[in-house]
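Slide 14.
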Amino acid sequence: MFFVLSKIFGILVQPSHWLGFLILATAISLLLRWNRAARSFAVAAALLLVLASFLAVPLARDLEDRYPRPPWPAHVDGILVLGSGFDTALFRARGVPQSNEGIWRVEAGFAAARRYPGARLVFSGGSGALGGSPFPESGTARYVFMELGQDPKLLVLETRSRNTYENILFSKGLVKPRPGEVWLPESGTEHIAVIRTT
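Slide 15: predicted structure.
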């Protein structure tokens, strides 16, 4: 139930979705000749676009710039790449990986794996689709990492997770990190968050 509610919440809070809803409402109002409502929805859509451009983007940049990148640790035991980045249905249909806006996670994870060639590289991803998917993202990730030259002995694939909470939960159960090990999230090439296991 929590998974379903989290997906619905994620859809509702994204400004881009609200912009789409407002444009759709404008179009429907115009078709029904509700001119006053159409004007209201169009003005709301324009205001949302302006606010997102002039407020949200600078605020996000300020938060990103506020935390300088720490140095790379001397030793890393593992790198965790959270699911996202692939359209698994298209990969199954065409045999060629199809990426989406989350592909940066895979790129950052592989870059960290090259920096630490002895570290385990864990890709955690089943399907984050609300209706589920018969093909986990980890299947596409295996293909991509192998094409990039990742050592298969150090690659671990977690196939059941549907969200970030399950990414962490199932990956921890799969790799069983020992006390004192150092792990990096996939964002290690930008903002390193060293996780020391206890």
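Speaker note: The radius of gyration is 21 Å.
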